[in-house]
């Protein structure tokens, strides 16, 4: 072969070859349309730097940035029947569950972990909206009850990060029964004299709002979070009136007394620590005793805690799932 075939032709062909690049290197802000490089977004805890819009945060990264040193232990959760009603709509419920587990790397919508925030032991439960819209089913209800029982047993505050589209319709009445079950768990926490703090993230709607999400001793909302029972469009169609600007958003609900605080994600850890110390009647620790989250965890890198924690919580994708109501 001559030099034209062996050198020139491959170089020319390389100009037209499509390069394989990830499709999530740049993320668009839903509020302003600003394009943000994914590493910059991760380093800013999934808050868009320009607009301050709070994107959904993967569960492992939220845990890492919340606990001292990014170290935590996930709790093992009881197993529940996979598909008790043998439900099928457009697809089988078992197929939907299998896809959600493959996408998120977790068994269901709620993860429970324990660790320390500014040296104060705490039990934390987090709903993952990427898992079937964070819908409340038997497994999620069991996880929340298990977290409350662990908090009572360890005598720690219980912090719950809510993100859900409501009850899981594929489980019917068994899903709705999780509302009184989780309410009973909250009552048990109150009788034990332990703080129960709810952080409402975007979105928190449906049966979750009608039960444990609005039964906290303190309700904190992330900026711009949608919080309510029915969505604004459903309400407008029902009452046939235009709703006020910002209706059901965190700031509107704070002005009208439905939530106690609207806290930026960067200030969430410190705010939770202050509230828990006041409610547990404990003095603040010395500054040198506080182990801040590692820079690697804030920047989106893996930490030892993520791989070695009980249950081995894997990484979660940030792509939202459809809401099950």
Would you kindly provide a written description of the structure presented here, covering whatever features stand out?
The protein has 325 residues and is α/β, with parallel strands linked by helices. Helices cover 36% and strands 14% of the residues. The protein has 2 domains: 34 residues, no CATH class; 252 residues, 2-enoyl-CoA Hydratase, Chain A, domain 1 (Alpha-Beta Complex), CATH 3.90.226.10. The protein is globular and about 85 Å long. 42% of the residues are buried.
Descriptive terms for the model:
single chain; 325 residues; alpha/beta; 2-enoyl-CoA Hydratase, Chain A, domain 1; 2 domains; 7-stranded mixed sheet; two-stranded antiparallel sheet; 13 helices; 9 strands; disordered C terminus
Mean pLDDT: 87
Total domain modules: 2
Range of strand content:
5-15%
Q: CATH architecture of the largest domain, please? A: Alpha-Beta Complex
Taking pLDDT < 50 over at least 5 consecutive residues as the criterion, the unreliable ranges are 300-325
Instruction: Please report the first level of CATH classification, the CATH class of the largest domain.
Output: Alpha Beta
């Amino acid at each position: 072969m001559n030099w034209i075939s062996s050198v020139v032709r491959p170089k020319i062909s390389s100009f037209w070859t499509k390069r394989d690049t990830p499709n999530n290197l740049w993320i668009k802000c839903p509020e302003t349309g600003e394009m943000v490089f994914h590493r910059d977004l991760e380093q800013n805890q999934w808050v868009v730097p320009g607009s301050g819009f709070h994107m959904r945060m993967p569960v492992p990264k939220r845990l890492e940035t919340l606990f001292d040193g990014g170290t935590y232990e996930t709790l093992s959760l009881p197993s529940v029947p996979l598909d008790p009603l043998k439900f099928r709509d457009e697809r089988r419920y078992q197929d939907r569950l299998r896809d959600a587990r493959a996408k998120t790397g977790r068994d269901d919508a709620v993860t429970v972990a324990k660790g320390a925030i500014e040296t104060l032991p705490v039990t934390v439960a987090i709903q993952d909206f990427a898992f079937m819209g964070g819908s409340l089913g038997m497994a999620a209800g069991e996880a929340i009850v298990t977290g409350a029982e662990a908090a009572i047993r360890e005598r720690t505050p219980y912090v719950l990060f809510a993100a859900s589209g409501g009850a899981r319709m594929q489980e019917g009445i068994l899903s709705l029964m999780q509302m009184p079950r989780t309410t009973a768990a909250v009552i048990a926490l109150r009788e034990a004299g332990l703080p129960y703090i709810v952080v409402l993230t975007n979105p928190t709607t449906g049966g979750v709002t009608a039960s444990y999400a609005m039964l906290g001793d303190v309700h904190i909302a992330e900026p711009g979070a949608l919080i309510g029972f029915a969505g604004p469009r459903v309400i407008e169609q029902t009452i046939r009136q235009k709703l006020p600007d910002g209706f059901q958003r965190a700031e509107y609900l704070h002005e009208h007394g439905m939530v106690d605080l609207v806290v930026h994600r960067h200030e969430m850890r410190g705010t939770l620590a202050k509230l828990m110390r006041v409610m547990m009647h404990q003095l603040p620790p010395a500054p040198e005793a506080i182990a801040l989250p590692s820079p690697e965890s804030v920047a989106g890198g893996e930490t030892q805690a993520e791989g070695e924690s009980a249950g081995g919580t894997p990484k979660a994708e940030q792509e939202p799932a459809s809401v099950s109501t």
